[in-house]
Amino acid sequence: MSAVSAEANLLALGIELPEPPRALASYVPLQRVGELLYTSGVIPVFNGEVRFKGVVGADVSVKDGGRAAELCALNIISLIRSYTGSLDEVEQFIQLSGFVRSAQGFDEQPRVMNGASDLIFKIFGERGRHTRQALGTNELPLGVAVEISAIVRLKT
Amino acid sequence: MSAVSAEANLLALGIELPEPPRALASYVPLQRVGELLYTSGVIPVFNGEVRFKGVVGADVSVKDGGRAAELCALNIISLIRSYTGSLDEVEQFIQLSGFVRSAQGFDEQPRVMNGASDLIFKIFGERGRHTRQALGTNELPLGVAVEISAIVRLKT
Amino acid sequence: MSAVSAEANLLALGIELPEPPRALASYVPLQRVGELLYTSGVIPVFNGEVRFKGVVGADVSVKDGGRAAELCALNIISLIRSYTGSLDEVEQFIQLSGFVRSAQGFDEQPRVMNGASDLIFKIFGERGRHTRQALGTNELPLGVAVEISAIVRLKT
After folding, report:
1. B6-154, what's its fold?
2. Cα(B138)–Cα(B135) distance, rounded to whole angstroms?
3. Hey, are the CB atoms on C105 and A40 less than 8 Å from each other?
4. How many A×B Cβ pairs under 8 Å?
5. In whole numbers, what is the pLDDT of chain A averaged over residues?
6. pTM confidence score
């Protein structure tokens, strides 16, 4: 898959990226160390509008939880592009840490996180294959259903 | 402790490693960046059989929570060996991130995580000393009691 | 802000650092990999005395949650100084991972985490700007309200 262009895939898939999340306080959305980019935890926001509030397994379905995870991934991708100028600067996704706000007894966090993982794989191919933490939590900022952060390796 | 062999310790302790967890979707169990190996979050599975479901402090005892953490550690060790061929390729464990599914008011996540930390120290000696996050959570994938991920530095 | 000295800021702000947290078991409070320092998760302890127990949004106010996060940050800073000898060895804070023990419906984890982020920015200036995960959790070790870990880059 060495010929895959993430930018070309994004175009072919007709995906519109949200504006990258902004720094809101004394922290930043991205930090680079050597070849690695660390992102802050991102929530399902589209151009400033918070979406997918609620608890997966209660008032948010698994399907909508997956869409929330997908929107988090789009925000991560948008952050990366705002920093690098092109998604084709990504050498490899290293890790996604995902937290799913979970109703009592809800245990399908991996299915929810597939919304993010599958989208990243569609866009980046093998370069999108990452390690993953799929975790539950009782509460998240602004009452959203999913929060995800990423570590990505850039080309040198 | 420079003469310690993790492989020899494993043998001496009579520990049987589980098969390494497989990739289940568009993510992978391990990613390498330079000298570092990142693992996905692993759960207490032995050769495909999920063990230690439940909530620590409710239907899972602290002792069994510790065994669940130990089994997570064995899966992490198995993953490392499947990648490196030998545990003696490990230079240093850097970090364990552990999530313990916790009943209301349960605050002994560190004792549960000692199941993983102590086992790794037994096998790897000083090379096994890691930083650690011991955290509570309300829910985890497949209803298990513990999920742990690791960052490990390999010899160069 | 290249002329900022974190040590001078600490003095000017009149901040007293707690003793650095000690290793309690088969893990360590800090690990270095190349230029990076990873810390264990730290809780709001001052010289061995655990402070700010409880649940934010229930028996702990947002303001006190912020103080708990600030105390976690002081412990992280104390750990770094115990290792480097001087805070001026810090090149850049890379990431804070913060977990806020949250009452049902509490969604202001970012405000709580600002207690840590703002303090680090006051002391380290631009070198203190980090990526951040602000997450909720139901339970934490010893019943504390906040747990935070950090990744910091040292000067070479």
Report:
1. 60s Ribosomal Protein L30; Chain: A; (3.30.1330)
2. 10
3. no
4. 86
5. 95
6. 0.96
